[in-house]
């Protein structure tokens, strides 16, 4: 699976800890992340991550482009709902694209754990059907 990882500044430690906890599972998948989130995860794990720009510099939009091309299967985006984000329109656009294209997105640890457990059990087989239907 192709998985994107994003975290707002106050949630980066939480994302890093999450990735450490599930490193074995994530090591079997292609990972993408916005700049700083990806860098921090790679510093604390052995995971290889394709890094985009930081979110405010276009990283959210780069991930959104992958969603629009049906090149992502899952997004883990630990959002900080208590801090205003200067690039909020980009964040809303990314979440909208996930809804349009049916991409599961976790915005907190509880939801991310449910999705990772489902991924571990192979419950994302429906994504393979989507790819086959589109001729990928």
Automatic annotation (TrEMBL):
One Gene Ontology molecular-function label: methylglyoxal synthase activity
Catalytic residues identified in the record: 60
Organism phylogeny: Bacteria, Bacillati, Bacillota, Bacilli, Bacillales
Annotated substrate binding sites: 8, 12, 54-55, 87
Species per Swiss-Prot/TrEMBL record: Tepidibacillus decaturensis
PANTHER family, A to Z: METHYLGLYOXAL SYNTHASE
Classification via HAMAP family: Methylglyoxal_synth
EC number(s) per entry: 4.2.3.3
Name of the molecule in the record: Methylglyoxal synthase
Keywords: Lyase
């Amino acid at each position: 699976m192709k998985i994107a990882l994003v975290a707002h500044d106050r949630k980066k430690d939480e994302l890093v800890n999450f990735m450490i906890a599930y490193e074995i599972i994530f090591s079997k998948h292609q990972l993408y992340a916005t700049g700083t989130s990806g860098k921090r995860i790679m510093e604390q794990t052995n995971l290889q991550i394709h890094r985009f720009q930081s979110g405010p510099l276009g990283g959210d939009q780069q991930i959104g482009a992958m969603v629009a091309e049906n090149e992502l299967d899952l997004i883990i985006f630990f959002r900080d709902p208590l801090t205003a984000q200067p690039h909020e329109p980009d964040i809303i656009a990314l979440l909208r694209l996930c809804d349009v294209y049916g991409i599961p997105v976790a915005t907190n640890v509880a939801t991310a754990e449910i999705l990772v457990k489902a991924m571990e059990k192979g419950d994302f087989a429906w994504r393979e059907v989507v790819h086959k239907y589109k001729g990928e």
